[in-house]
Design brief:
Four Helix Bundle (Hemerythrin (Met), subunit A); rod-shaped; 2 strands; 10 helices
Length: 383
Amino acid sequence: MLQPTDAASRARTHGLTRTPVVPRSRRFRGDDDAAHDRAGVPSHERPAVAAGASRVHGLRPDGCGRGGGAGVLSPSTGGRPDDGATPEDDGPGTPGGDPAESPSDRMRQRADRARAKGRERRDQVRERTRERTEQVRERTDQVRDRAMERTEQVRERTRELTEPARMTVYRLFGIDRSGPPPIETLAGQPLRVWTIPNAVGLLRLALIPVFLVLALSSDDGTRLLPALLFALIAASDYLDGFLARLTGQYSRFGTLLDPITDRALVVAGGIVCWHFDLLPREALAVLVLRELYTTDAARRALKKDVRLGVNWWGRLAVWPLMAGLFAALVGVGWPAKVAVVVGVGMAIMATLKYERDGRRQLRERAAAAQAADGPATGADTGA
């Protein structure tokens, strides 16, 4: 009976056994010794294995390791090639190891994290956009509310200025001058030349040259006919206003024609009195200069869209002026001089008040324009 050692030697001698060859770079010393012990290889015939050689992890289906070497059969592994790997070192999906993440799983997890971050960023941007939109909406609502409030104030003020006043007897005869002016007389309204009050005004203006011809053709300027014509033209100033209030035919043309006719009549009477030396020429010179300055001021006010209403100094000055000129034309001496001097003083006061009112309107308009441009300028500077 042969001993195991001799049988193994003879089998090796005749080439009947094959020792699995494992690359030295993928073996441990303990694995090679175990395989040689199982094969019955003596220790002096065993190849040397470098210390610290790497270990084989897993086998291919043909029994070879990943590096190309053959595995070693071991009873402890259940008959599978023994490459020195433990069940914990097996690859993913092996019966003996824990499942591990594959590259596709890692890529899927990264994509999920990227999508989560993207959703989070989109939610943050959406939230910030919603907050900013809400702030802009609140500011827009505030601006709209302020604009509506200002519009309502302007509308109320316009209604107060343009609402026709209730006609009374005092208002009809020109005694009550309170209330807003008629809307037809405001700037920007049509002229409406052909009305009954305007016909009276045009007739008054046409009679002034007739008065001048009749008065200057007399010997001393105190003839009765020119004086009566002067009184008629002066009295009709009240008539056209009465007809306008009675018929409601207010017009922009009437408001421009009436003061021009009155000043032309005063200048015509002053020329006659100057020519025949019926009144003090100093007072007449001041009166004529005042009328010319007032006419030019009215033209400038109209050009700058400044409304100058007739003040009480101007209304009251008409009576002594017209009365003094008429008295001089009929030959009354000192009462005419006193009336004209008083009327000239009142007319100068009226002119000063016109000038002050016009400058005040211009200042208020400039202040309103500056206040309207202030917020926009500040917003541009802040931006």
